[in-house]
């Protein structure tokens, strides 16, 4: 009898261990690199979907493509993050409100209503300058809060996980140094850190350390390293000095992984390009 009990307990333990391992190895599917009309480039190229639209799309709802036709996922996703660009966040969306005092000026400059892809592309640099000069800090904060609120509204524990996030869009000598900053909880800063604060990703990491010191959980995910022209993973720091232990620890705390694949393609490439 004792031996039978022992065998039963061993079998139960093995079964439980197998079950735990099965949970740990479950594959979840999602997207942590998504833009809406709150991103300057997306708006300029015709995107009018909101963060709420994006989360509904991730859950399987049908939405409209900028060209007018319907798009819908074959299968709903498990997790999702809207990561609009920190730079001029929501600027064009704010100006597109007919009640905004600069709405008519923006229309006259051709920033809001260009009709072709070529014209939209041409207006993009002008849009950046106009937004930089006219959008207030309060309006930028309101746009960020909208992103935060949308993620919180669509979070369904155990069913659909939303992450609050944004994209830091730095570059060097035209080489892409973009990163998506993802928060692990709903504790987020009032103001986010973007390229206009510093082009140096090391400064982004130090800012992240500061947020972590205030109890926040966050990480940075670099992407499109294949378009960095060798700047993303260099063996020297921003100022040209060799990387050292302090640099490695700073990077590892804040950037423990890298985006390899997204809807635009796969970023795996020779180190010379990344």
Describe this structure in words.
The protein is an alpha/beta fold and 274 residues long. The protein has one domain: TIM Barrel, CATH 3.20.20. It contains nine helices and nine strands. Helix 3 runs parallel beside helix 7 and helix 8 crosses helix 9. The protein is globular, with a radius of gyration of 22 Å. The N and C termini lie far apart (64 Å).
Task: Break the fold down into its secondary structure elements and pairings.
Elements: H1 2-24, E1 30-31, H2 40-44, H3 51-58, E2 63-64, E3 70-71, E4 79-82, H4 91-95, H5 103-108, H6 117-134, H7 137-154, E5 161-172, E6 175-183, H8 201-213, E7 218-222, H9 245-254, E8 261-262, E9 265-266
Parallel strand pairs: 1-4, 4-5
Antiparallel strand pairs: 2-3, 5-6, 6-7, 8-9
